[in-house]
Amino acid sequence: MLTLSxxxxxxxxxxKKGLNKTISNIxxxxxxxxxxxxTPGQVLLSSFYSLQHATPDNLNTFIAQLAHxxxxxxxxxxxxxxxNIPEIIINACEQYDLPLIQIPGHTPYxxxxxxxxxVLFNEKVRLLxxxxxxxxxxxxxxxxxxxxxxxxxVLEELIHCPISLLNYNKKPVFFTQKKYxxxxxxxxxxxxxxxxxxxxxxxQLVSIETxxxxxxxxxxxxxxxxxxxxxxxxxxxxxxxxxDFDFMAIENAVSFFQMELIKQFAISEVQQNFRNDIIDDxxxxxxxxxxxxxxxxxxLNLYSNKKYRIVVIQFVKNLEHPWVSTKEPMIDKxxxxxxxxxxxTHWQHLVxxxxxxxxxxxxxTNHETDEEFKxxxxxxxxxxxxxxxxxxxxxRVGISHETTIDDFHTYSIQSLKIIQQAGIFKSSSFIMxxxxxxxxxxxxxITDSSKLExxxxxxxxxxxxxxxxxxxTLHSYLDYNQNLTKSAERLFIHPKTMRYRINKIIDxxxxxxxxxxxxxxxxxxxxxxPTLINRKKMIL
Length: 540
Fold this sequence. Notes:
- By secondary structure, the chain is α+β, with helices and mostly antiparallel strands.
- It folds into four domains: about 5-115, 3-Layer(aba) Sandwich (Udp-n-acetylmuramoylalanyl-d-glutamate--2,6- Diaminopimelate Ligase, Chain: A, domain 1); about 145-265, Beta-Lactamase (2-Layer Sandwich); about 290-445, 2-Layer Sandwich (Alpha-Beta Plaits), CATH 3.30.70.270; about 450-535, Arc Repressor Mutant, subunit A (Orthogonal Bundle), CATH 1.10.10.2840.
- Helix content is about 45%, strand content about 20%.
- It has 16 helices and 16 strands.
- It has helices spanning about 55-70, 85-95, 110-140, 150-160, 245-285, 290-300, 335-345, 370-385, 410-425, 440-445, 450-455, 460-465, 470-480, 485-490, 495-510, 515-535, and strands at about 10-15, 25-30, 40-45, 75, 100-105, 165, 170-175, 185-190, 200-210, 210-225, 230-235, 310-315, 350-355, 360-365, 395-400, 430-435.
- The strands form three sheets. It has a six-stranded antiparallel beta sheet with strand order 7-6-11-10-9-8. Strands 1-5-4-3-2 form a five-stranded mixed beta sheet. The protein has a five-stranded mixed beta sheet with strand order 13-14-12-15-16.
- α4 (about 150-160) runs antiparallel to α5 and α7 (about 335-345) packs across α8 (about 370-385).
- The chain is elongated and about 110 Å long.
């Protein structure tokens, strides 16, 4: 601004450090009520008329208000109402890095305003023209159904910087220059949001993994997405810092990325819903003929002459007392999609179905025994989990026996029973086949609830209905071989409280803690009770 002809006699008094501030507007100020109308980036012109009688404290407060509203400069005309700018104004402008400019009394406001506004207007016209140009480029490629890489190439041509597309944990998915795809991030600082920014940006200091001595900055912006995993767009500032014009191109690119990702998600959802319907029909045996079943299965690349296993997986939050929980665990849809995507890259020809509370995998098997398949699956499964960004949940995995398409409806229930039954008594993660359920497999096969009740001592059942928390106390006490201290720690209570509760249980049930047969009966009952509760949809 100071290079304009109208500022030929202007003098910079203080606030030199603020000369690089962006100017959005210039206006005359003859009233001190700036809080009501001041906007960021404005330059103020004043004759000091409204401030000529202000106290030093008021003047200092006035400058602080200008700084608070991100004023870009203060121009004061001398000789009319003020001979010398007060020292308090000079010092305050220096303190807040607010450029303070003095102009002689004969310099017309109109000349300065016209000069400044002409520059601002020309800049806005230039920005508008550029906006139309880049928007036209992106719109043109949008009609050609571009890939994500196509959009990245156009952006690189516009801003002349290497571009990378990163996944949710900031690993490169696509890039325009491989050299700048794998970088080490040394620090990251959020960028102050400007008026033209619709997205949030960070600027990172990075180095190339193979050349750690080469440091440069990288701009990174999160691409909002609906229903699908989010991505980041990374722009490496190798030879230059990005300008306002570059940001305009980036903003357009992010918008087009977002639209393309939403389109891809919508298409994949329609395709997956179609596949889900076929999987559901296979699991419930809804086909009228085997020919119809085989024809539908072939759409999923499943064949009648092949062997498969059905694997059911749940990722659930850590339950403090899982053996008494009857609620179906809800799972993180985003995490499950990430997990399935990684499974598809690891296991070929994988067929999957994500339900509200579990993931179903239909996997090829190579005539392995149940134990061999479980061990191989566990090794690969844990490898996939280790690659995921976060694992805030425990996992439950049930693996069916080997089967064919004809018996999917039977063995899908088998693998589901594993996680339902084992999930009642196990608080930690597990991977099980049906054989591993042991005694609990027997419980899952009892369909008559009255038969389950017969396995529970009558006094234990009465204790549950009267004081259910004492059932949990007894369960913990017996699990820890009647060790008061350890069982109390398990329940987060004092050992004396534990002793009081156990005595109360003994009095109510009449248990002889030295009778191994009676203790076996209660141990069995404690393991049958959660299954019975689950059947009756009751909550302990």
